[in-house]
Amino acid sequence: MVVTFFILIFLVAPLSLLIHEMGHALTALLHQAEHSSITIGRGSKLFSVKLGRVKVHIRWVFFQGAQTLNERKNPFSLREKAWISIGGPLFNAIVAWFFIAMPFLSTSRTWMLFGLFNGYLALVNSIPFCFRGKKSDGYRFLEGFRWGSILRG
Questions:
Q1: What Cα–Cα distance (Å) separates residue 123 from each residue in 42, 59, 87?
Q2: Is 80 in contact with 63 (CB distance < 8 Å)?
């Protein structure tokens, strides 16, 4: 049980967060983002790596939180923002499907946990909600298609 907890916190969660944020970044690049910056974790920087137009920053508390900043000269339209927002949960859903629906990929408990956690991230981030001014990916997706008024009531 303790080993599973440490695997979840120090391996599964950070890798799943990276996959989620890469989904946002790659979707933004498909919409002509000039560059993307992914930050995994909190605290001071542990290291950074540049992969083409994507820069990844890993912080010391790498198992807590993540964000992606996508930039280009002309602002993204609401629809482009919607697709970029749903890119993260979509990548998590694809990974979850691979590791849950294809049993030969999840022969160990760690890989099954990886699939389940990615499924959790896909589901929770797809639910449209706004909490203390922070909008979920699902909320931003619906907002991008002018359904935001429905969400606000």
A1: 24, 26, 13
A2: no
pLDDT in tens, 103-112: 766 678 888 8
Domain tally, the chain: 1
Q: Is residue 96 domain-resident?
A: yes
- Assign 1 to helix, strand or coil: coil
Does residue 48 lie within any of the structural domains? no
Residues 59-104 pLDDT 10s: 999 888 899 999 999 999 999 999 999 999 999 999 999 988 877 6
